[in-house]
Amino acid sequence: MKIIKARDYQEMSRRAANVISAQVIMKPNCVLGLATGSTPIGTYAELVERYQKGDLDFSGITTVNLDEYKGLTRDNDQSYYYFMNEHLFSKVNIDPKRTFLPDGTEPDSAKACEEYNRVIDSVGGVDLQLLGLGHNGHIGFNEPSDIFKARTHCVDLTETTVEANKRFFASIDEVPRQAYTMGIQTIMQAKKILIVVSGKDKAAIVKEAFFGAITPKVQASVLQLHSDVTLVADEAALSEII
Ligand code: F6R
After folding, report:
1. From 65, 117, 136, 142, the catalytic residue
2. Is 96 exposed, middle or buried (0-12, 13-18, 19+ CB in 10 A)?
3. Pick from 119, 97, 98, 116: nearest CA to 106
4. Protein residue whose Cα sits closest to atom 12 of ligand 1
5. Does ligand 1 come within 6 angstroms of the Cβ of 140?
6. Is the CB of 38 under 6 A from ligand 1?
């Protein structure tokens, strides 16, 4: 694993945007795996700025997102589709027809997951997968478990995750309890992985996930087995390891 240490959130965002920009420049028709959450917001803002300056062209890019809440429509401002549209898709020249997320409005979980697996297969796999890291070590919504789930599945979110997500909703009762997420095999099959982490509150899980035992109890620990992972993190997030 390559570790890039940034001074702060802003530098982390710039460094992460450098990795994504390099990918887009070197392979203009690449498939980007994307994440939501608070950590990549600055990275997306950097990419938008570079696009506006004329330094990046997203016209040939395809994107597949990690996850989506089950039960939220695309126009719900808490849906991950809405997030992606607000932070990236509507601000760059990406073809909306080539941006994919699991369909949160599909009530039949098996159908939604099967359809998303089909999408992932049809785009030919992911060139660069961007990830954030949950406080419990989750990646996508692959929550601590006794197993690693291979492909897209419906998850019951843990109380910790519901608790962490409630800041985005009017009340905890509005936080969805289920989500569709890409599985660990799909994430591990990405050619390159970029994981962004910021803040002191993530320092313990960074150490556990990347320097501890490889276990489905800490799903991100599986990334230790991937041959091309770049961790871009600020000093606070790296404070327990460097
Ligand atoms: C989001 C996702 C999650 C987040 C993780 C960290 O698509 O898949 O795994 O990356 O929960 O979230 P933040 O960045 O808000 O700390």
Report:
1. 136
2. exposed
3. 116
4. 37
5. yes
6. yes
pTM: 0.96
Q: Is 35 in the pocket of ligand 1 (CB under 6 A)?
A: yes
Beta strands (DSSP E) in the chain are: 2-6, 31-34, 62-65, 67-69, 99-100, 128-131, 153-156, 178-181, 192-197, 229-234
- Report the C-alpha gap between 120 and 176 in whole angstroms: 24
Give residue-wise pLDDT tens across range 111-153.
999 999 999 999 999 999 999 999 999 999 999 999 999 999 9
**C-alpha to C-alpha distance for 182 and 170, rounded to whole angstroms:** 27
**Which residues fall within 8 angstroms of residue 108, CB to CB, at 6 or more apart?**
none
Tokens of 131: 């990830």
Indicate which residue of 68, 106, 127, 143 is catalytic: 143
